[in-house]
């Protein structure tokens, strides 16, 4: 296992009043990715079963994620997976700022990444909560809520990838080449998909706008799920853990510390 950081402050020795339980954090981004993905797969299964026709939304303009989860059981399943998943994504970005800062990244850069991810995840919580409602508020969230989530999460992931590569070059982190290449390919793919969508919007080809909007949503969601899973595997390799201490910790002592296994 590679060291997470040379300058990482070791956790203080536990005392009788400050016993610590060491918890690995890599499941956090993994579950944050898989919960919404599972919910979407289940909702898609419900939708195709209801319609009686197989729908492959990655190649067909058959349905958007939002529309298929708008009513009935599909809406409940969607919320049950996406809302806790969004909350876990928010926690992932909160923990990422501490992990990367501990590895030597300037805290200002780590905070920018974290704030973008937190804002995006919070918007997903709001949008998921209103999904299925009607009115101007929902229409605004349908357009700008999803755009804020995807763009905020994308830029947070981009900053994470750049930060990991920078720390790798400075020997602050050991990042396998496969993971760096995978992050670059996934983020470049999202960029290309969004540029194609934007070019169609600018061109005014109305027959393609709606179709590409749905395809962009599905392919971007898939790529972002894979990025979260890549982050989870990096955290596993780095041994990112939280030392959750007892209630009676020493004065001024942080309840969470990051250190390699």
Automatic annotation (TrEMBL):
Claim: Transferase is one of the keywords in the record: no
Keyword list, A-Z: Membrane, Transmembrane, Transmembrane helix
Source domain of life: Bacteria
Membrane-traversing stretches: 25-47, 86-105, 112-131, 143-160, 180-198, 218-235
Protein name stated in the entry: DUF998 domain-containing protein
